[in-house]
Recover the amino acids of this structure.
């Protein structure tokens, strides 16, 4: 039986003009995860990665901490949904930067509402596929792992939305649970699936074992 390690990217640049860029903390999180795995002798047989900049930067940080890894296979189906397009589909008026606690909470309230409507098929955000198309890209990646990598260790670097969709697919959760899982996934967190020829099974969710030491207490982030 193999193991699939799904990693959410390190902290990006929430509230900035370009979110798709790791912060200094995000780079530290990624490098620390790689070093943690190196300390435990983990090596990967295959690497799958989304095509966003924050995915590539996270993978580079992991590689810096871990050492040599296989050449990654880049899969657009592992890319995140467009949160701004989702929010605009239900709230067309411009919103201020979410730079206060209340505006931050408002942003995620609107996002959760928009996700629920998108998953139900009641909105079609500009430039985005429907939920079936989005989740289908995630299912294709999981099926690829199940068919090609039984018995191996596979690293998958992506974002909170695809990882929550993957967990929802394996556990067959209703939409509201999938959204709740999405909102809980922390930066650089690891979710593990056991891989058998017949199915994938959830082993751990949203783990930050690599930051479980007093010196890393301030490194836990969500956005």
């Amino acid at each position: 039986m193999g193991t699939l390690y799904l990693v959410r990217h390190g902290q990006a640049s929430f509230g900035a003009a370009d979110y798709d860029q790791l912060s200094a903390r995000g780079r530290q999180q990624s490098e620390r995860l790689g070093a943690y795995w190196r300390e435990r002798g983990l090596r990967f047989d295959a690497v799958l990665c989304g095509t966003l900049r924050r995915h590539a930067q996270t993978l580079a940080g992991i590689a810096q901490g871990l050492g040599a890894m296989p050449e990654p296979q880049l899969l657009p189906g592992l890319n995140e949904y467009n949160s701004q397009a989702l929010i605009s589909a239900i709230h067309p008026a411009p919103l201020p930067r979410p730079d206060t606690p209340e505006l931050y909470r408002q942003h995620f309230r609107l996002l959760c509402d928009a996700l629920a409507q998108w998953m139900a098929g009641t909105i079609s955000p500009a430039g985005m596929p429907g939920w079936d198309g989005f989740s289908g890209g995630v299912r294709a990646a999981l099926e690829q792992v199940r068919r090609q990598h039984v018995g191996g260790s596979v690293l998958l670097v992506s974002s909170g939305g695809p990882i929550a969709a993957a967990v929802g697919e394996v556990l067959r959760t209703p939409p509201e649970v999938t959204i709740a899982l999405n909102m809980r996934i922390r930066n650089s967190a690891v979710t593990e699936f056991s891989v058998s020829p017949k199915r994938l099974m959830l082993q751990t969710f949203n783990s930050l074992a690599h930051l479980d030491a007093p010196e890393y207490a301030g490194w836990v982030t969500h956005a």
User: Anything to note?
Assistant: The helical segments are 24-39, 53-66, 83-90, 101-120, 131-148, 160-171, 175-184.
